[in-house]
Design goal:
Layout (H helix, E strand, L loop, with lengths): L20 H70 L25
Length: 115
Amino acid sequence: MTRKTTPRRRTATPKATPVTPRTVLLAGLGAVVVTRREALRKLEAAAARVETLRESADAAAIEAGRQVARLRGQAEAIAERAQAEFEARFIKARPAARKPRRAVRPAAKRARKRA
């Protein structure tokens, strides 16, 4: 019991296109069209990437501004506390203003008796 196989036909190999000026011209035009099409696709893709990059950069800038504002508030609070502590430790409250003392006059010169 052997199986019968049908003979398969060989596919015809395409004949080589003769190189004529017409075929060279058509091949060149085809290459130009394909290149142009690919360039347009790449250009559109790059433009889309630029827009997404701009949007993400704007979002990052806004977020950075928020963080700077938050950190500035924290820094101001810390500076106020430090200043208050410094003043409490090192700057003593001055007593109420006193009347300025009168300048002491030099003693009057008196004439001495000679013996």
